[in-house]
Design a protein that fits this description.
Blueprint lengths: L1 H41 L4 E7 L4 H4 E9 L2 E8 L2 E4 L1 E5 L3 E8 L3 E10 L2 E7 L4 E8 L5
Antiparallel strand pairs: 1-2, 1-9, 2-3, 3-4, 5-6, 6-7, 7-8, 8-9
Protein name: Lipocalin-like domain-containing protein
Length: 142
């Protein structure tokens, strides 16, 4: 009787240990996948970005980029106090995005931006000169 009880307790102990190991293994896998997904998401150019620029006229100092993706192409909309402009010639790189915008008709400005987590930074270039640009991703609920 004692031997049967001892074997039963041993089997039960092995079962509990294996179950605990499986739970920990699944938790570790989930955590690693969650970290990987967060990194991928945070380094993505897709999102809503509130930005500010230097060396520009007041209507262009602050604004919001709306960057969306449809399959393999990206769209950029630039919201200013004076209206919304559409990005053209959009190219997404490994760590950023480049595009052009036409201001006031024929004034073309090129944006070259790098994304690091929830920050976006870079420069703009036009016939007038260049400007630095800094922005942050707008996260819902924060």
């Amino acid at each position: 009787m004692k031997i049967t009880r001892f074997i039963f307790q041993g089997v039960l102990l092995v079962f509990v240990f294996c179950s605990f190991s499986t739970i920990e293994s699944n938790r570790t896998t989930y955590s690693n996948q969650q970290i990987l997904n967060e990194t991928t998401t945070n380094d993505s150019v897709v999102g809503v970005w509130k930005y500010s620029m230097s060396n520009v006229d007041a209507p262009y100092e602050n604004g919001v980029f709306f960057i969306t993706q449809k399959e393999d192409s990206y769209d950029v909309a630039l919201k200013l106090s004076t209206g919304i402009l559409t990005g053209q010639d959009v190219i997404v790189t490994e760590n950023g995005i480049d595009f052009n915008v036409n201001f006031e008709g024929l004034k073309r400005v090129s944006f070259v931006l790098i994304v690091k987590g929830d920050k976006i930074m870079g420069e703009t270039f036009s016939e007038i000169g260049s400007s630095e640009i800094y922005g942050v991703r707008q996260i819902p609920g924060r």
